[in-house]
Structure formats: structure tokens, C-alpha cells
Write a structure and sequence with these properties.
- By secondary structure, the protein is α/β, with parallel strands linked by helices.
- It has two domains: about 375 residues, TIM Barrel (Alpha-Beta Barrel); about 100 residues, Immunoglobulin-like, CATH 2.60.40.1180.
- About 35% of the residues lie in helices and about 20% in strands.
- The protein contains 16 helices and 21 strands.
- The strands form seven sheets. Strands 11-12-13-21-17-18 form a six-stranded antiparallel beta sheet, with helices on one face. A three-stranded parallel beta sheet has the order 3-4-5, covered by helices on one side. Strands 6-7-8 form a three-stranded parallel beta sheet.
- β1, α2 and β2 form a beta-alpha-beta unit.
- α7 packs antiparallel against α12 and α8 packs across α12.
- The chain is globular, with a radius of gyration of 25 Å.
Length: about 500
């Protein structure tokens, strides 16, 4: 390494470290931010009150200037998933840098079964292979050359994804790197118990082949193979370190500190390793669309985990969720998803007006064009009432009582201690795609949750005029009667 190269590496590290330290300051997402996945026309941005574009769309200087002129922060985006069927077909070096299984065969990306080129499939790239890592470097340099505010890394797990879920991650580079991981992280007695005679020459594939000769056999017994927990952790940590490196390259390319996000699909454990290196999370969170509002626990778990990990999150639904929205022409259910995310202190990205990704096993990849008029009002409401979202932190809802078809979260102003209650209607009529309005909804709160001198609660709803109701105090508790609950109301008590 030359002195100049060493100096540039130090500069990149310093820029990246500064970006991470800036989390929670200018670079962090605010609770009231309105986040787009991809770039959109100016008039669409204005309709929604956009503040951030999180999943790329600003790779050139012209793109960046357009967004900055609109007061919008923007990102470049690349993925660690695959080099794509065309490049794999045409480039032997890239073709040899695909993730492979125990038989040495490349592993296809299941959700890209319809993305082929002259018979070549879209295979996972191996982020432990120097050739694929160099491909990723070039992609970062390409998308950050315009000086975007941040980098988004899609499918950040790289080869860790087929290693965890699809029977891959077993090429020579993976095995060599795993050997080094074992030397540094696993006690000698544990290695000996697993049958490792000499860690310096150990090939994990030899141990696997004693139990499985094919990918299908391997997938059936994978979790029973000795050292497998270490193997999976190695892959996830290696993927996280690779994302960190990409962030450093992005900062160097852009010439300034950058945000760094990844499509880290919380609450899945494999996706948690990278969180410490991110300024924020941009990801898909399954909403269980086929169950309406009944099975929302998965999304809530993701939002609460992001809060626990101290990183702001902007979510979208899964491709399967959006496929149902497109098929059934749903509008109320996606509005509920938006409200649910904001109620839990996170954000839900704007349903894209041109290319919201959908996926089913039958149709493969297809796209939903979300009508602006259906969703813009709820985002404008959030921006208009930003002071009721920003600077509020998650607070315990213990002691809060509501009916079973109502979901309440409690947030507190970190400066004043004043609470804000997010009240969501769960009474969804799927056949009609509408919420059944509830009248005179009683919310009982512990007395200690409210300011002592508070007398009124202010009710804000995206589809109604603001209103105020009197607080009803009684023997250590307080009741708020919400005259009507349609989809979502925010109750602020001061």
C-alpha cells in the first residue's frame, strides 16, 4: 500500500466514522420524515411533502441537485444480491464468483426466477469472493459519483443469505475465511469436540459431506451439523463488515460524510448484525396483508426492535403484501400500515406511484402504481403536525385500557414529558376495504401518565378537523372519550 493509498484509506475511515457519529443529529431520520423509496417527479414529491429518498435514484450530480433544490435528501443505491443474469452470462470472472452449494453448483435467487439471460439464471453473488467484492465497489462508485447524501445497500447479506436460507456459502473463499473465524472465535476444546483435528487445514465441507452430499440433503440437516451456529454467525458478521467497507467507499467517492442504510429485514436475526454500522434502516417489513389487521405483531416487533437498537427505520411492505394490494385495489389497508409505523415511532415509505415492487410465485416481479390521491393526505397530515411526532419517544402503555379492536401506543415529548397517544382502529372489513367507525371510544390512562394540570386532550386526525375533549379524572386514573375513531387519531395532552 502506497503512502497516498494509505492516506486516502484513513480519510475514508474518518469520513465514515463521522457519519456514524452524526446519527441522531443532522443525518438521522426524524419521526415526521416522509420517505420515498425511489426517485419521483417533482409534483409527486410536493404532493406528499417528501423529505428523503431512501432507496437510491440520485447517482448523478444533476439528480442530487434536483433533490436538494426541492429540500430533499437523497441517496445512491446498489445491491449485494447478484451481478445479474446478463453479466454472469457474459463475464467468466463474475460467473466464478457466485455463491455455491456443497456440490459446487451456483445458487439461484428464488425471487428472480424470471430474470434470466440466454438461459443463465440470476445467481447469488459471493461477497467473500474478491471478484464480486470488486464488482460491488464499482457499483458504489457508480451510484455515489454525483455526491448523494447517502448510500443504500440492498440485499446487504450477500452470500450470507444463501448460507442461512438456501444451502449456499460454501465456496473456497467462504471456507478459507471461516477457518480464520474459527481460529479467532472458537475455543480449541469445542473444535476438537466437533472433530476438527487441525484448524489450519480444516475444510468445513468435509464435515458437511459426512451428513449430506447434495443441497437438498444439506438443507434438511443443516442445523444439526456441528459448528453450524458459528458458520452462520461468521457469514452474517462478514456481510456486515462488507457493508461497513461499502460505506467507507461511498464517503470517499462522494467526498463528504454520508448516511448508510441497508435493507435489513427486521426482526430476522441474520439482519441484526449490520445494524451497528448503519445510520438508519430502510427495509421491507411483512404486514401479513391477507390477514387484514389481525396479524400485525410481526411489523410491531420489527418497529420495536429498531427502537431498541437505537436506529430509525423507514419500512415498506413485502412484495407479497403489495401484490395483494394491487390485485384487490386496496387503499384503506395500506393507510393502516402507514399509521401503524408512525404510531410506533418509525416511518412507512410512500407507496410508490410508478414502481412499487410486487411479487408472487405465479407472477414473479411486477409493479403497483399507487394512486397519489389515496395516500398523499395522510403524509401531508404528518408533515403539518410534525411537532406532534418529532422529539417524542416511546413510552410504556402499561395501565392503558381500550377495547379489543383498538390499538394504542404512548409516546412522550422528551423535552416536556407531555404524552401523545396514537389510537388505531383494528376493525377492518376486508371485503369492503374499510374500517368500521367506532363511536365514543373510551381510553383509560393511569393518572401519572398525564401532566397534573392538564384539562383537555387535543385530537388530530388526517381525515377530520382538529377537536378537543375534556379529561375525566377519577381516583388515580383518567379517561379520554374519543367521539369517533375511523382509521387513526393522535391525541396530544398538554
Amino acid at each position: 500500500m502506497t503512502k497516498q493509498t494509505r492516506f486516502m484509506a484513513v480519510v475514508a475511515l474518518a469520513l465514515y466514522a463521522a457519519a456514524v457519529r452524526a446519527n441522531g443529529a443532522d443525518m438521522a431520520l426524524k419521526h415526521s420524515d416522509v420517505v420515498f423509496m425511489y426517485a419521483s417527479p417533482d409534483d409527486v414529491y410536493r404532493a406528499y411533502g417528501a423529505t428523503f429518498v431512501g432507496w437510491g435514484g440520485a447517482s448523478s450530480g444533476e439528480d442530487v441537485k434536483r433533490h436538494h433544490d426541492l429540500g430533499i435528501r437523497c441517496t445512491g443505491s446498489m445491491w449485494c444480491l447478484t451481478a445479474g443474469a446478463k453479466l454472469i452470462h457474459e463475464n467468466a470472472e463474475i460467473r466464478n464468483a457466485c455463491a455455491v452449494d456443497i456440490e459446487g453448483k451456483p445458487v439461484e435467487v428464488p425471487w428472480l426466477f424470471d430474470h434470466t439471460h440466454e438461459g443463465t439464471k440470476s445467481y447469488f453473488g459471493c461477497t467473500n469472493n474478491p471478484a464480486f467484492r470488486e464488482h460491488c465497489r464499482r457499483e458504489v462508485e457508480r451510484c455515489m459519483k454525483g455526491g448523494a447524501d447517502g448510500l443504500h445497500v440492498d440485499d446487504h447479506l450477500g452470500v450470507a443469505s444463501p448460507a442461512w436460507y438456501f444451502g449456499g456459502g460454501l465456496c473456497d473463499y467462504c471456507i478459507a475465511a471461516f477457518r480464520e473465524y474459527l481460529k479467532e472465535n472458537v475455543p480449541a476444546d469445542e473444535l476438537a469436540k466437533a472433530g476438527v483435528a487441525d484448524v489450519n487445514t480444516f475444510d468445513y465441507r468435509d464435515l458437511i459431506r459426512k451428513r449430506a452430499a447434495t443441497r437438498e440433503e444439506y438443507k434438511k440437516v443443516q442445523r444439526q451439523i456441528p459448528l453450524m451456529n458459528h458458520f452462520l454467525e461468521f457469514h452474517a458478521q462478514a456481510a456486515a463488515e462488507h457493508v461497513k467497507l461499502l460505506g467507507e467507499i461511498a464517503a470517499k467517492t462522494a467526498g463528504h460524510t454520508v448516511t448508510l442504510s441497508a435493507n435489513a429485514g427486521l426482526p430476522d436475526k441474520a439482519h441484526t448484525y449490520v445494524i451497528k454500522y448503519l445510520t438508519h434502516i430502510i427495509c421491507e417489513v411483512g404486514q401479513n396483508a391477507h390477514s387484514g389487521t389481525v396479524k400485525i405483531h410481526h411489523a410491531i416487533e420489527a418497529y420495536e426492535l429498531a427502537t431498541k437498537l437505537g436506529k430509525p427505520l423507514a419500512a415498506t411492505a413485502s412484495g407479497w403484501d403489495w401484490a395483494l394490494v394491487k390485485e384487490k385495489k386496496l387503499e384503506t389497508l395500506p393507510r393502516f400500515w402507514i399509521a401503524l409505523a408512525y404510531a410506533h415511532g418509525q416511518r412507512f415509505m410512500v407507496p410508490h406511484p410508478n414502481n412499487q415492487w410486487c411479487f408472487t410465485d405465479k407472477l414473479g416481479t411486477h409493479w403497483y402504481q399507487a394512486p397519489v390521491e389515496a395516500f398523499a393526505p395522510i403524509y401531508r397530515f404528518i408533515r403539518k403536525n410534525a411537532e406532534c411526532f418529532d422529539d417524542f419517544e416511546t413510552a410504556s402503555a402499561e395501565g392503558v385500557k381500550v377495547s379489543e379492536k383498538v390499538h394504542v401506543t404512548v409516546r412522550k415529548n422528551e423535552r416536556t414529558g407531555a404524552p401523545a397517544l396514537h389510537v388505531l382502529n383494528l376493525d377492518y372489513a376486508a371485503a369492503e376495504d374499510r374500517m368500521l367507525p367506532a363511536q365514543n371510544v373510551a381510553i383509560t390512562l393511569p393518572e401519572g401518565l398525564l401532566p397534573k394540570d392538564a384539562k383537555q386532550a387535543h385530537i388530530l386526525s388526517y381525515d377530520a378537523e382538529p377537536a378537543a375533549v375534556e379529561l375525566k379524572r377519577d381516583a388515580g386514573s383518567c379517561a379520554i372519550i374519543l367521539p369517533e375513531l375511523r382509521l387513526w387519531s393522535v391525541i396530544v395532552v398538554e
